[in-house]
Design goal:
The chain has one domain. The chain contains eight helices and two strands.
């Protein structure tokens, strides 16, 4: 699941901007504001975003099961449900962003991105905090995961600072706008790279789980408990 998510996302973005660079109508640089405006880049980014929304929802649900299964006797169910809601809202926002590409709606696009960013930022930081207690990774990986979560949040704040200055025309000089635009582009790509690295850090934790389809139901449980129950 982890490598499927990372492979799908990275392949989608790389394909999108490769097509953009080959298209004379677009910019030769990986500008995040252009791909949804042209074909076939727009269809690639739509598929990528819908895939991210679907896989992100599945991973959020698996993490919810992960925690309530690991601490089934003393788990804070309300907190885990709040985390589940934040994760699903972030995935829903990603789906809205994909729909906005279909409808060419800037307002819908920014609403979806805002929902994905705000909910995703809170989810990543809170999930990283929970995994300090439940993860089987070394402590250094937990520190790395938290650092990546904080970095993603800072980078997206820089990105939205540029959006705010464009919305309210805070920059009066072209040089000022260019600095904001360049900072936003760098921040976006740093955030994407950190996000994919953060997802990779979940791999070892996902290995502790096994999934089985029985009687039309999907059962997710710990491998350790399975082995303990075997005669």
């Amino acid at each position: 699941m982890v490598f499927l998510f990372v492979s799908w996302t990275s392949t989608g973005f790389i394909t999108t901007y490769t097509l953009q660079a080959m298209d004379h109508k677009g910019s030769p640089y990986p500008d995040i504001r252009l791909p949804g405006s042209f074909l076939p880049q727009s269809w690639v980014i739509i598929g990528t975003l819908f895939g991210c929304a679907l896989l992100g929802s599945i991973m959020t649900i698996i993490f919810y099961v992960f925690h309530i299964t690991l601490y089934e006797d003393n788990c804070d169910i309300l907190f885990q449900r709040a985390l589940l809601g934040l994760g699903l809202c972030a995935s829903f926002g990603t789906g809205i962003t994909a729909i906005a590409q279909l409808l060419s709606s800037s307002l819908l696009h920014m609403s979806g991105v805002a929902m994905a960013f705000v909910c995703g930022a809170f989810y990543n930081i809170m999930q990283s905090r929970c995994l300090y207690e439940t993860s089987c990774n070394p402590r250094i990986i937990c520190h790395l995961r938290m650092a990546l979560s904080i970095t993603i949040t800072i980078m997206m704040l820089i990105f939205y600072a540029n959006f705010t200055q464009q919305l309210f025309s805070l920059c009066g000089e072209p040089e000022c706008e260019e600095v904001f635009n360049d900072a936003a582009e760098v921040a976006w790509w740093v955030a994407i790279a950190c996000f994919l690295l953060q997802v990779i850090t979940y791999y070892k934790d996902f290995q502790r789980l096994y999934m089985e389809i029985s009687g039309g139901m999907i059962i997710i449980a710990f491998r350790e408990k399975l082995y303990q129950e075997l005669p």
